[in-house]
Amino acid sequence: MIKNAVIAALAVVLALSIAGVVAQTQRTATVQVRIYEDIEDPGSHYISSRPHGGEWTESREVPPLNDGFVQAGKYRFVNVWVGATVPQPIPPAVELFDLECTDHVHPNGFHRILRGSLRNLANATLTDVTITAALVNEDGVEMLQVTDEIGGAIAHGGERPFLVNFIGAPNVAGTCPVVSIDYTATVRYEVPIP
User: Fold this and answer.
1) Pair 49, 124 in one domain
2) Same domain, 107 and 184
3) What pTM value is reported for the model?
4) DSSP string across 66-85
5) Which of 47, 69, 111, 114 is most exposed by smallest CB count within 10 Å?
């Protein structure tokens, strides 16, 4: 009786949900660091940093250079740590194609739109797909991040178009890189009843 119940339970379709987090193959971030020197007091230095395209941190005084010496005592140094967001690569379970970042012109000016398509390469069904893209102006500064949610399920090999609309940043020219893709992957296992 118990054996039949176990076999019947195994016959039920088992759905395994896997978060769309994939092993990262590239974990680097570009950080810009700026050192300021007080014109009236050349001995006073301040430091500020920002991740690529991000906002500058509040300037803070450079701490005393007392962490050590390099090149036989010729230079003193201090280690200063800055935080940065590490970009996530596109997961290998999806492929983006036909990407096009264009201007959408309207009576009050224009705004950028990113159009493209997503293809499911996973041996799973994708749901809850969210694509996040950034608007990076011509100076390389990230102005805005916007998401588009793709509704419904995307089977293996399936394709869906998407559109990310940067209407919140009018009259800003630049590029529209994809920053991240989040999804849920569902794999179905069926066990036959003997």
Assistant:
1) no
2) yes
3) 0.53
4) -SEEETTTTEEE-------P
5) 69
Instruction: Return d(Cα 81, Cα 67) in angstroms, integer.
Output: 13
**Which pair of structure tokens corresponds to residue 168?**
């919140």
What span, in angstroms and rounded, lies between the C-alpha atoms of 6 and 2? 6
Cα dist from 167 to 25, 30, 115, 159, 177, whole Å: 33, 27, 14, 25, 16
Q: What is the DSSP letter of 55?
A: P
Q: What is the pLDDT of residues 22-34, one digit of tens each?
A: 333 334 556 778 8
Task: Tell me how far apart the alpha carbons of residues 179 and 185 are, in angstroms, rounded to a whole number.
Answer: 19
- Domain of 63 in residue numbering reads as 31-77
55: its two tokens: 């906002």
CA 48 – CA 147 distance, rounded (Å): 29
Greater confidence, 57 or 110?
Answer: 110
Distance CA 113, CA 176 (A): 8
Q: How far is CA 37 from CA 31, 46, 98, 156, in A?
A: 20, 7, 47, 57
Q: Is residue 41 part of a domain?
A: yes
Distance, C-alpha 67 to centroid of its chain:
34
Using one digit for the tens of pLDDT, what is the confidence trace for 150-174?
988 998 899 999 999 998 888 888 8
